[in-house]
Amino acid sequence: MDSQNISPSPTASSGSVFAHLVRAPEDPILGVTVAFNKDPSPVKLNLGVGAYRTEEGKPLVLNVVRKAQHQIVNDPSRNKEYLPIVGLADFNKLSAKLIFGADSPAIQENRITTVQCLSGTGSLRVGGEFLAKHYHQRIIYLPKPTWGNHTKVFTLAGLSVKTYRYYAPATRGLDFQGLLEDLGSAPSGSIVLLHACAHNPTGVDPTPEQWEQIRQLIRSKALLPFFDSAYQGFASGNLDADAHSVRSFVADGGELLAAQSYAKNMGLYGERVGALSIVSKSADVASLVESQLKLVIRPMYSNPPLHGASIVATILKDRDLYNEWTIELKGMADRIISMRQQLFDALRSRGTPGDWSHIIKSIGMFTFTGLNPEQVSFMTKEYHIYLTSDGRISMAGLSSKTVPHLADAIHAAVTRAS
Ligand code: PLA
To answer: Residue ranges of the Aminotransferase class I/classII large domain (predicted)?
Structure first.
């Protein structure tokens, strides 16, 4: 064809075919890092995203991760072939053992299907799409509040999102009565998203006795639990203790889903390593589930990445590396716990108005401070401290050196900006 005869399409002359786009807002959590990166101040502090920092304020690559990487890179028998759709077999088996316990009867009875996914988020998304396609009830109940991305992940997966009461601002604790009432009136079969431990953003977890009541209610109403386990080991420093809630639901023989992330507990944030497990009633059903999960995954991203899963599998299957990991993990959890005490003490010594005991009582990576959006923006503007507008701070981003600066900012925000 003669190129001179090609007339420009009408849109080409009036600008881009995308010119009508409205600018989307930044993500409420990851957008905090975007703003932080633009701030030239030397005293700036990012307490937005939940990412572990050392006392020096630096990201941490665990020593066991370095060792495992070294082994992998130096092993000439390793290649870069595609993984199967469901991911690395060893990784899947070891991940199930980690969350459900090595002696889990459900594992021995082959009732669990585990597929490697793209970290916690990808596991939730694959689980959500699987449920939207194959489960009879499309309603999923999320705690109020919850990790902001949950609503988007499950809505886009095709589920209909509702909430159940979880947090009581007045007591800064669990609204247990509200939770029982809301789940009690949920339509039978509804899916219930539960944070396995270290609830994000509140840092408030049910007690073992409360978990037991929640379990009985969920089972009596034939609700389907979907555990999000993004912080195993990070809450208490103990991997088994942090899996207690999930294991109690497996022990009753009922069905459930669980999404695991290795972002925090192995510090593999950017490697995107996670797993989705579905516990069924029989090995036959588990194998049907796997066959259908493959149909969800294949058109989404075909198969998952190899490197991060190899690191995890290397650590989980070697007794020495595993033990070393648990020590490093405990070190991270303990440092976070000590930051809680230091921040609490710093506010007390400044005489900051308010009861700040929730800082030491809350569990996991975050403290839900109770600061309002105006106070948060004051702290960002005047003190270059970045946090999400709901007043959540990542304790893992603090260090002994930065606690006084944060305490000054909170004190000023509470006394001047309210
Ligand atoms: N589930 C919960 C409860 C989370 O808090 C997070 C991460 C994820 C799942 C997903 O993690 P992954 O996909 O990286 O494995 N929440 C972070 C980061 C730490 C984020 O928002 O992406 C947070 O700051 O809340």
So the answer is: 44-410
